[in-house]
Amino acid sequence: MEPFIEFKNVKKIYKMGDVEIPALSGVDFSINKGEVVIIAGASGAGKSTILNILGGMETLTEGEIIVDGKKISDYDQTQRIGYRRYDVGFVFQFYNLVQNLTALENVELATQISRDPLDIVQVMKDVGLEKQMDLFPAQLSGGEQQRVAIARALAKNPKLLLCDEPTGALDYSTGKAILKLLQDTSRRTGMTVVIITHNLALTAIGDRVIRVKSGRVDSVTVNEHPMDVADVEW
Ligand SMILES: Nc1ncnc2c1ncn2[C@@H]1O[C@H](COP(=O)(O)OP(=O)(O)OP(=O)(O)O)[C@@H](O)[C@H]1O
Ligand SMILES: [Mg+2]
What is the pTM assigned to this prediction? Predict the structure, then answer.
């Protein structure tokens, strides 16, 4: 079976005036379809850079990236916008919701740029927000806002869900509920989910764990028996 995602010798150099900052210095890994992937590593290691390049939000300096049989590293700006719109769902640390739209409207907005959106009310039910659909973000708890953000990403029906420290702003039990939702969603729908975390205890829940160090892959581990989020303590 061909891998669903492949990074081949991916390099990223940020240029700030005359200064060159090598964020990625030759990154190689592959990911199979339907996996929950944990990307771990110290601050500044290059985790967000990897995710942003994979999601078409940043370009790479060198190397090759294949997603679902397409060489996205060759995409021009227009193709990249289309890829980002239709194929990728993003979840960030600080939710990024539109404050003057309700929870449901935030999700609806995202589906307007999708070719094949899911039923938004059903998605709200799936993330446990049936009763909060008509509330505004300021009326929701942090965990509820993050669930809106996840619903918004899922409702687009993307090939790939990318999460950059999705529990970074949440307390322990709320963070755990969010991770459980991500793991359950991947298992239920076969969606490929990539999660960045600082927390090494979370590596146990990944089907695959990619450890990043100083702009390179330090190790890749495949867990034959990943733990259920509910059974992990940290
Ligand atoms: N837009 C940018 N311009 C210049 N340098 C950048 C930019 N984005 C990231 N970098 C640099 O690239 C390196 C990797 O950054 P990245 O954000 O990928 O790290 P990270 O692993 O996500 O860290 P953290 O855990 O703190 O979020 C860092 O040295 C950072 O300063
Ligand atoms: Mg980061």
Answer: 0.96
